Automatic annotation (TrEMBL):
Molecular-function GO terms, alphabetical: hydrolase activity
Pfam families, sorted: Lactamase_B
Domain Metallo-beta-lactamase: 26-217
Top-level lineage group: Bacteria
Protein name according to UniProt: Glyoxylase-like metal-dependent hydrolase (Beta-lactamase superfamily II)
Gene3D superfamilies (UniProt xref): Ribonuclease Z/Hydroxyacylglutathione hydrolase-like
Keywords: Hydrolase
Listed transmembrane segments: none
Cross-referenced SMART domains: Lactamase_B
InterPro entries tied to this protein: Metallo-B-lactamas (IPR001279), NDM-1-like (IPR050855), RibonucZ/Hydroxyglut_hydro (IPR036866)
C-alpha cells in the first residue's frame, strides 16, 4: 500500500518532494525521494523529534534516509541530526567548527527557547560535525533521474547558510532561515546582516521566478515574497 504525504501530516510540494512544519518553533523539515535514496533537509529540534522525522521519512521513502542536509547550525534545525545514523551529512563549510566549539551555546539557546534541559543536553552531547562540507555548489545524484543541488549562498542568517534546490516542475528551494514567513527574519549574534541581501540575491538567481521557496519557518512562498523580504532586510540593516 502506498503511503501518502498527507497521512504523515506532510505537505507534498512536487513529485517526490515534500515538507512538514514541526510543532514548537514552526520549523520546516524537507524530504526529497530518489531511487533507493532519501534526502532529509534539516533534522528537528531534539533527538526524539529527529527520530519521528526519520520514521516518517522511511515510511514515505520505503527505505532509510541516506542523506541529510543541514541548512544552518541552530538547535531547532540540527539537534535531531544524531537520529539519522548512517546518513551522509552535508552543511556549509565552517559549520563543522560550530558543532565542535558551539555545543554549549546551542544547548543554552535551546533551553532559553523552551527545550527541556535534559533533552537539550542529550542532543548537544550527541552532535557529530558534518563531514560533507559545501563551499560553493554540490550536486547530489539521488538516482532515478532525481538530483538535488546544495548551494552555500551565505553568509546571512548565519555565517554558514546552505540551501537545497530540487529541479522539477515546479522547482523547489529549501531556504533555511534565510527566508521566514511566519515572522520577521531573526538576526541573532551569529547573523551577518551586511551580507544577507546578497545571499537572497543568490538564492533568487538559483531558483528563478517560478520556483516554490520553502522558508525555515512558515508557509511556502514565491519569488516576489523573497524579493520583498530581501529589500526589507536591506532597508533594516542599511545595505543595498
Amino acid at each position: 500500500m502506498t503511503v501518502t504525504w498527507e497521512e504523515h501530516g506532510w505537505e507534498r510540494l512536487a513529485a517526490g518532494v515534500g515538507r512538514c512544519r514541526l510543532p514548537g518553533w514552526d520549523c520546516t523539515a524537507g524530504l526529497v525521494l530518489g531511487a533507493g535514496t532519501a534526502l532529509m533537509v534539516d533534522a528537528g529540534s531534539s533527538l526524539a523529534e529527529g527520530a519521528r522525522l526519520r520514521s516518517a521519512a522511511q515510511s514515505l521513502a520505503g527505505g532509510r534516509v541516506t542523506h541529510l542536509a543541514l541548512t544552518h547550525v541552530h538547535f531547532d534545525h540540527v539537534f535531531g541530526a544524531a537520529a539519522f545514523a548512517g546518513a551522509a551529512v552535508y552543511a556549509a563549510v565552517g559549520a563543522d567548527g560550530v558543532f565542535r566549539r558551539g555545543r554549549d551555546e546551542l544547548r543554552h539557546d535551546a533551553v532559553h527557547h523552551g527545550l527541556p534541559a535534559d533533552e537539550a543536553e542529550e542532543a548537544a552531547l550527541a552532535l557529530v560535525p558534518p563531514r560533507q562540507l559545501v563551499s560553493g555548489e554540490r550536486t547530489l545524484d539521488l538516482g532515478g533521474g532525481r538530483q538535488a543541488l546544495l548551494a552555500n549562498v551565505g553568509p546571512g542568517h548565519t555565517a554558514h547558510d546552505l540551501v537545497v534546490l530540487v529541479p522539477g516542475e515546479p522547482e523547489v528551494v529549501f531556504c533555511g532561515d534565510l527566508v521566514e514567513e511566519s515572522g520577521e527574519p531573526q538576526a541573532g549574534p551569529d547573523a551577518v546582516p551586511s551580507r544577507w541581501p546578497d545571499a537572497l540575491d543568490r538564492l533568487l538567481a538559483l531558483g528563478g521566478e517560478d520556483a516554490l521557496y520553502v522558508p525555515g519557518h512558515g508557509a511556502v512562498v514565491d519569488a516576489a515574497f523573497v524579493r520583498r523580504q530581501r529589500d526589507a532586510l536591506a532597508a533594516r540593516f542599511g545595505v543595498n
